[in-house]
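Exercise 3.2. Students should predict the tertiary structure of the chain below and write it as structure tokens, then compare their answer with the key that follows.

Predict this chain's 3D structure.
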Amino acid sequence: MGIKNFNIWYLSSLLISVAVAIPILTICAGFFESTSNYYSILKDTFLFDYINHSIILLAGVLLSTFVIGVGCAYLVSFYNFPGVNFFKWALILSFAVPPYIYAYSLTAFFENYGTAFSILVNLFGEGEYNRYIPKMDGMFGAIVSLSLSLFGYVYILTRASFHYQSQNLIDLGKNLGFSKQKSFFKIILPSARPAIIAGLSLVAMETLSDFGTVDFFNVSTLTTGIYNAWIAFDDLSLANRLSFFLLIFILGLFVIENISRKKAQYHSPTKSGFKSKTLVKLNKVNSILACFFCALIFFTSFLFPIIQMTYWTIIFPKHFSDLNLIELFANTGILVLLSCVVLITFAFISNYGNRVTKSKLLELLTTFSISGYAIPGVILAVAFITFVAWFDNTIVSFFGLGTIKNIFIGSILGLVSVYFVRFYSLACNGIKSGYLKINYSIDESAYLLGYSKFKTFTNVHFPYLRNSILLIGLIIAIEIIKELPITLIMRPFNFETFATTAYIYASQDLLEAAAVPSLFLILITSTFILITARYTLRD
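Answer key:
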């Protein structure tokens, strides 16, 4: 690498990569540190339960999301039935409902003398209905809540894959004498395998990083163990050691996914060989069944929690009036605005640096820097606190500069910093996809006209990238509004968002009070998702 190439672009990307690497390195180093007696007790008692429950939860959610996501994607992509155009976009609204909020709705409806009991009493009079109402709690409740909130990852990626499948593949199955079922399992499903694996990988990441749902249902997983080690025991070493086990899970998933992708070979038809699919019109009975299945998923994943939260808001109006909505909107807006500015700015720096320097090293560094999204938020938060504490106690104290803990721990700056590591990949990949649409000949023409690199960026690149910036901002906003563990751990004292307010009320068994912030959170994220869908779900 020549000296002339080592400029601000190399330095910026290097710093970004280091920022993302710090949590991983901190966790790995922390594993070998001495811990308190809590770890010995934990190892002999609950550690196996943490690992075992995490595996069971992951298996249940992956199986459920596979069936729901692939099933819905297959129906709306290959068949014509009443409401199919509505369900194509309506099914993604499940993203608006965080798993922990779905858990509140599920519990409230099925608990003893809950909403289901009240409905039965109103319909049939007094009776012992609780014995017939299924209980949605514990591991089963956590699997249901996570599955109906996360299946959208599998649905949207699988649907995209199905959409671009050629009719030639379907015709091939017919020529071979395959039934519809055999064609699905032998041709259609294998061709969509990369998309399905990608969707399931995202589901796995979200499941392993979930805190609000498993904590509410009192399911002991590695995530709850990490949080309790930090909050309950004030033991960062123990939290880091547990984080190491969770990190092993994550890395294991990456290895399995990469091996699976390498072993699979797929053929993508050229444009000339592509033939658009003809949607199969179902008969009356099958049309009803297909419509019912999609409607059931849409209702249970999106309408059900909204109805439950709206019901509570209406019958308990006091909780609405007691809530400081202006403060919650302001706090959430501040986090979204600051995070968007920081993330998009750094994403521009890295991508523009790659474009003007065309360096393989810089490209490698940028690729590494987007790995933060795969790391659960609770790990990033604990690792960030650990690193700041180490840096303060060694480097800062060595130079006699006082302390920096108050600047980064329990502050908006620290909160946005962890958001940055967690969601940088969203911004970086979004800007990169926008840059791929700008031909390098445009840059060369601008240079010939006397434009500097900076002027080329402001006058040429930026207008092309405005839609990408809007889309990235919307996606980041959705993620931050729903984010819980990072916000819980890193937020300043008495700084609450819709997510943390709902969690605090629910953790105190005040589900009726949690309804109002939960409802607002769902409505806000639904709006952002619908706007985003305009750009991402075009047939």
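Discussion points: The domain at 12-34+61-265+287-536 is CATH 1.10.3720.10 (MetI-like fold). The CA atoms of residues 317 and 518 lie 14 Å apart.
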